[in-house]
Amino acid sequence: MAHTDETSAARPDNSYVELAVEVFSMLADATRVRLILALRDGEQAVSELAAIVGKSPTVVSQHLAKLRLTRIVTTRHEGTRVFYRLVDEHAVNLVDESIKQAEHAIGTPHHHRVAAAQLD
């Protein structure tokens, strides 16, 4: 299946390939993937994110710091509280596509069943 993209960034010889690998490396952690999924609906405080992903606020803060260093998330301060949000939609798109790919390993993917049901 060929995919054509008119941007030069989508070429195998592009210098951004190494940076893309760093992004994948950052996303190669279940807690960070869960945080990205939790943040797709908007900004949240560390305590809220900790409850969603089932980790301590300290652990969540450490993961968020890594995501912030790689410019996947950004912060907003309100008094003593810090709110995190995704910088853009690209990280959540990568996570969504990765989950769709993972679904293929277990049989008929959910996203195919949904698409088929919409055609009926």
Architecture overview:
With 120 residues, the chain is mainly alpha-helical. The chain has helices at residues 16-26, 30-39, 46-53, 57-69, 90-104, 110-119, and strands spanning 44-45, 73-78, 81-86. The protein has one domain (16-100): Winged helix-like DNA-binding domain superfamily/Winged helix DNA-binding domain (Arc Repressor Mutant, subunit A, Orthogonal Bundle), CATH 1.10.10.10. Strands 1-3-2 form a 3-stranded antiparallel beta sheet. Strand 2 (73-78) and strand 3 form a beta hairpin. Helix 3 (46-53) crosses helix 4 (57-69).
Offer a concise description of the structure.
The protein has helices at residues 16-26, 30-39, 46-53, 57-69, 90-104, 110-119, and strands at 44-45, 73-78, 81-86. It has 120 residues and is mainly alpha-helical.
SSE layout and pairings?
Layout: H1 16-26, H2 30-39, E1 44-45, H3 46-53, H4 57-69, E2 73-78, E3 81-86, H5 90-104, H6 110-119
Antiparallel strand pairs: 1-3, 2-3
Helix pairs in contact: 3-4
